[in-house]
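To: structure desk
From: M.T.
Subject: fold request, one chain
Message: Could you run this one when you get a chance? Sequence is below, nothing fancy, just the single chain.
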Amino acid sequence: MRQFHCVNLEYFPKEQTLFWKIKNTGIPNFCLNGLKEFQEFCSWVKEYFSHPDRPLKFIVSGSEHQGIYNMGGDLPFFLENIQSGDIENLRQYAHLCVDAIYNIYTSFDLPVLTIALVEGKAYGGGFECALAHDYILAVDDAQFGLPENKFNLFPGMGAYSLLHRKLSTGDASEILKSGRILEVNYLKSLGLINTVFSKKEEEGELAAFNFVSRLNEHFNFEYHHALCTKKIFPLDKKELLEITNIWVEACFKIKKFDLRRMEILGNTQLRKSKAMTIH
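Reply: Done. Structure tokens follow.
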């Protein structure tokens, strides 16, 4: 099993399940180096599990950060590139994000189901990452949100495409525009979250295995149901790239006040991530 700097892997042949978890190192967001390595990870997954002697039905994502799934985009990186006017560097980052989202959405080009195991906060790109999976399994106190409009931007790495395919136009727009923290039960009522578990009753990994076991009982239906749904509501990578290119352009149109709010939010996320790690 290959080793990666940014993610830890566990393969369970009997359950035909691969877990990949973001390592508890640094800020739990999507940094440029991590996104570059994720490209390598995706290629490795496709090649390694294409062999018949490595059976795979489920790929589960998670995080080793206590109380955090992922905080989303690298706000200090955004700020640095906007202030320096480096549009190409920011565009590279955005395209790598799209590449990651699309690989998850297309199940790494394998006949598998993908599951996001959310055991804490999933904000911005973290929420978009979870939405790219076939299923979302969340602990009962998990929180979700798209905070980009707090600094006069919009979520540009998949939220529009994914939410408008999964929800009504009204519900999708409400989530995209509100900027508020979204609780588990609300998202479950909309159908975005499939199963909620209590951390008082079971650990996240156990909850994931129990969920996988239930899916496996009707895997033929569940897999082909997901496949047909994506055929009815197709998502082309070109669409994701066009939207993220709009996002890159929009980054260079926000004002100093918005940049200051981006900086404040980035510092807040850093403090929260440190507090969660210490706890």
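Reply (cont.): The chain has one domain: 7-278. Let me know if you need anything else for the meeting.
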